[in-house]
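Following up on my earlier thread - several people asked me to post the actual chain instead of describing it. Fair enough. Here it is, all 204 residues.
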Amino acid sequence: MGKIIESTVIEAKNYVENILDEKLSKDCVYHSKVHTFDVLRNVETIGKYCGLDEDEMNILRISALFHDVGYISSNDGHEIESVRYAERFLSTRGIDPEIIEQVKNSILATQMPQQPVDLLGQVLCDADMMHLTYKDYFDRIDLLRQEWSNTGKVSLDEMEFHEVALDFFKSHNYFTEYGKNILDPLKNETAFLTKKKLKSMNIA
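Reply from S.P.:
Thanks for posting it. Predicted structure:
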């Protein structure tokens, strides 16, 4: 049994890219390959800020790559399916069961409401929610609104969706020091812009 090494991560990246290209429904316009690789970049940023070593970073890289793969099978409870794909991939490559458990726990931590039990889970959760701080937040989040409609989860107009998003801002918390120090102020700015947008919609 062994550790996750760089070649494992490269192989996982190719595997995930191929399976998402081949099997992910076109209805999933937000939880796409773009989002997966975005979260992968985010764990690099947050993990390094938190002082994680290379072994921990490799666990996070695999977790980020697989965290939404379950969407190819199910929209509801996709994290359970994501864990199955990750476990199958890592087991066939002789990865230590304890390391596989860390990957599984990190992925499961992203279930809503997020409840990470360790730093690796906290990093992945914050990486997954980092879009709340992006300058193109409104473009990205509209893809989520479209996806909800496409998949039959819920159909909301733009104003209704932003009202739901504003409630989410109030309940959401970042977990890591990076999240609290860097991301929270940016998220607060997005929340302010959301309120401003809603106000202009009400006037119109």
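The chain has a mean pLDDT of 93. That should answer part of your original question.
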